[in-house]
C-alpha cells in the first residue's frame, strides 16, 4: 500500500510538473504568437505606407511622361515651323533674286536701247 501511495504521489507530482511545463510552454507560445502578430501588423503597416508611396511615385512618373510627351510634340511643332520658314525664306530669296535679275536685264535692255539712238544720231 505504501508503494502504491508513493507511486500515486509520484504520478501526481509528475502530472503537476507536466501541467506546469505545459502551462509555461503555452505562455511562451502565446508570447511568441503575440510577437509575431505585432511583427505582422508592423509589416502590414509598412507595406501600406510603401504602397501609398509607390502610388504617388507612379502618379508623378505618369505626369512627367505626359509632360515629356507634350514637350516633345511642342518641339516637333517648332521644328516644323522652322522648316516651313526656311522654305518660305528660300522661296522669297529666289523670287527676289529672280526679280532682281529680271530688273537688271530690263535695265540693260533699256540702257542699250537708249544708247543705240544716241549712237545713230
From TrEMBL:
Residues 68-95 form a coiled coil. Residues 99-121 are annotated as: Disordered. Keywords: Coiled coil. This is Uncharacterized protein. The lineage of its organism: Eukaryota, Sar, Alveolata, Dinophyceae, Gonyaulacales.
